[in-house]
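FAQ: What does the model actually see?

It sees only this:
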Amino acid sequence: MSRKVLGLLYTVAFLVFGYNLFMWSWSNQGYAPTQPIPFSHKIHAGDNHIPCMYCHSSVENSRHATVPALNVCMNCHSVVAVNKPNIIKLTEAYNSGKPIEWQRIHALPDHAFFSHQWHIRKGFQCVDCHGPVETMDKVYQYRKLNMGDCLQCHRDNGGPTDCNACHQ
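And it is asked to produce this:
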């Protein structure tokens, strides 16, 4: 084999490897940070059947699902489990007007544009991307949520795959 052909093969192999690395890298799958106040989605969404959109109310009309404001928590916790230590911390934060600094779990790179609104309107359920949250005492990033994962989902579900769909 000539040097030219060998060089071309190495170049192609390098490009294929680089493309796959780019497509499948940048994943926080399994990431589960410790929160300032432990919060069990298993208790809230699972045992008590509180719908995701009760707490994450902006998800239908916004790019982000957002962390609920403390007054949403206090809708129940002004009368439920009020003597538990973590609820006391929650109530103190609410009464002082100081926000709780929750740790973000699901994050995408800055160059990717994602809107919950579009996906909810297309009929996707929260569990499609976030997994069985109703079974999680501690929420973790269920899917890779990287470019390859998103592209595969778009292909499987007839979503747009052109660059401008997510990179605006």
